[in-house]
Design brief:
Elements lengths: L2 E5 L5 E5 L5 E4 L5 H7 L3 E5 L3 E3 L5 E7 L5 E11 L10 E8 L3 E2 L3 E2 L2 E4 L13 E4 L6 E2 L2 E9 L2 E11 L4 E7 L5 E12 L6
Antiparallel strand pairs: 1-2, 2-3, 4-11, 4-17, 5-17, 6-12, 6-16, 7-15, 7-17, 8-14, 8-16, 9-13, 10-12
């Protein structure tokens, strides 16, 4: 004799154990990121436009987590505008710095929005999301990821970084030019404790 276990809506999520002891499942499968978005735990963090006029490294973004759940940075998006300065290399150097000891900027980023338009959830008020500026500095930490991004390019890359409570990251940009606009966006979600092994 078989056994049927149903959860949620009848007939949608069903586990059937047949008379031979084999399990048959009818279920909806989705990624952790999709699940987080449905629950209102997925966010878009974006500096907005940062004008860089120094041909050198500038701190452009800083995030420090104060979340009880793990903050997963799924993807980084980098936009580099037209390079109007005197240099001609045409390639910006973008670095992610792990756990810097300090940054010289503390202006709130232009965007910190829930990706579920029906949710009013926000990140914890103690989670810092800062927008840098030309010649802003990032001190300490470890260089973790490097990208080269050409002018007039929007680059999106999966990075899948985890920030525990108290962890931080910074993003620096060396535009190799003396007049260009850049922005940094991070697509992230909270990993609910029920999914933490």
């Amino acid at each position: 004799m078989g056994m049927r276990i149903e959860g949620g809506k009848t007939g949608v999520n069903t586990l059937l154990i047949d008379s031979d002891g084999k399990a048959e499942v009818r279920a909806v499968v989705e990624t952790e990121a999709q699940w987080a978005a449905e629950k209102g735990n997925s966010f878009n963090l974006n500096t907005g436009t940062v004008n860089l006029t120094t041909n050198g490294v500038s701190g452009v973004m800083y995030v420090k987590s104060n979340e009880d759940d793990v903050l997963i940075i799924e993807q980084i998006i980098v936009g580099v505008g037209e390079q109007l300065g005197t240099t001609t290399e045409g390639v910006a150097h973008v670095k992610i710095i792990r756990n810097p000891t300090s940054v010289s900027f503390s202006t709130a980023a232009d965007m910190s929005q829930n990706r579920n338009f029906g949710s009013s959830k926000t990140l914890d008020s103690g989670t810092l999301v800062y927008k840098g500026a030309d010649s802003a500095t990032v001190t300490g930490g470890d260089e973790t990821i490097l990208f080269y991004v050409g002018e007039k390019v929007r680059m999106a890359a999966p990075i899948n970084l985890e920030l525990q409570k108290g962890n931080s990251l910074a993003v620096t940009v060396d535009p190799n030019d003396t007049s260009t606009n850049v922005y940094i966006a991070l697509v992230c979600h909270l990993k609910e404790s029920e999914f933490v092994a």
